[in-house]
Amino acid sequence: MPTPPTPPAARRSDATRAAILEAARERFAADGYDRATIRAIARDARIDPSMVMRYYGSKEGLFTAAVSVDLALPDISALPRDRAGEALVRHFLSLWEDNEVLTAVLRVGALSAAGAERTRDIFRDQLLPAARRVCPDPEQAPTRAALVASHLLGLALTRYVLRIPPAVELSEGEVVAWLGPSVQRYLTAPHP
């Protein structure tokens, strides 16, 4: 049975939502959570501010929708145990390349409580379970995941946000060679 065509109003609604989210990502990345305003986002999306509130309810609701991130982490427990760190570093490098959503999350996470909360949620919900699958002591998984996040977020900050030249100039292979062993140690080494 063929799918009925989408009514014009629904198509406009989808287009409006998409325009709002795109404008919000750009504005949050440029201004941070606290300085970004619903009015500025609506102006960038070329809509009335009431439409932003209609679709997302609040600035917090808009931020949560705009920075919804699926890290799509590889199943590191299915890899040879000594390759987990390298696999995560490679994966994160591929995620960060030209990804305005992750850049917005990092910038806003560093500048506001709401952004920090959203960043913590993403890593708690996605990185922590991955660490639990390979960690030799499940009780240490939160600490180990936090150490992995410190390296990966530090790399992202220096390479993609601050654009510190030596960090930007590293090839993917060099980044993996430098960070992979540290991430591996955090994930699978015996307790220090």
* Count of runs of 4 or more consecutive helical residues: 10
Strand elements, count: 0
Q: Can you give the mean pLDDT?
A: 88
The N- to C-terminal Cα distance equals 62 Å
**Main sheet overview:** none
Please mark out the parts with pLDDT under 50 across 5 or more consecutive residues, or reply none: none
The gross shape turns out to be elongated
State the helicity in percent bands. over 70%
Structural class: mainly alpha
One letter per element, helices H and strands E, the order comes to: HHHHHHHHHH
Oligomer: single chain
Radius of gyration: 19 Å
The proportion of strand residues reads: under 5%
Based on the model shown, name its key terms:
about 190 residues, single chain
Overall description:
The N and C termini lie far apart (62 Å). The protein has helices spanning 8-35, 38-45, 49-56, 59-66, 84-96, 100-111, 113-134, 141-161, 165-169, 172-188. Helix 1 packs across helix 4 and helix 8 runs antiparallel to helix 10. The longest helix is centred in the first third of the chain and has 28 residues, at 8-35. With 192 residues, the protein is mostly helical. It is elongated and about 55 Å long. The mean pLDDT is 88.
In brief, what are we looking at here?
The protein is mainly α and 192 residues long.
Which SSEs are present, and which pair or pack?
Layout: H1 8-35, H2 38-45, H3 49-56, H4 59-66, H5 84-96, H6 100-111, H7 113-134, H8 141-161, H9 165-169, H10 172-188
Helix pairs in contact: 1-2, 1-4, 1-6, 2-3, 3-4, 5-10, 6-7, 7-8, 8-10
